[in-house]
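Progress report, Aim 2. The chain analyzed during this reporting quarter is listed below.
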Amino acid sequence: MKFKVWHDEKNNVLRYDQNESLKANDIRKVTPLIEKLAIQTGLRCILIDLSKGPAATLDKEARKALKDAAMPDMFEKIAIYGANPAMRMIAKIIFKITGSSESTRFYKSEEEAIAWLKGQEV
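Predicted structure tokens for the chain:
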């Protein structure tokens, strides 16, 4: 499975776990799943786990799909952990272009990311 979208009831956040590099078609599949779960739960914070994904970066078509699929008003906070330096750079550019850079933070650990999503100082 390339990705998993779920409600982490223990921490009361949405989660997106990426296990493999995504292609544009994968991004088009996962975006509606994230949106649907956000609406169903009413949650406005998402934790993105890139720690299990490969070090490869997204190809040009996948980057465009990610930019097109962005939901800048959907989430108040986006916490990402486990991203390699190349993925962080690409993500920062995409979040800047889509207007989500102010609500997005990168963390080395899951614990730090969850603490920030919960409003605790990190």
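Residues 44 and 76 are 5 Å apart (CA to CA). The chain has a mean pLDDT of 88. These observations will guide the mutagenesis work planned for the next reporting period.
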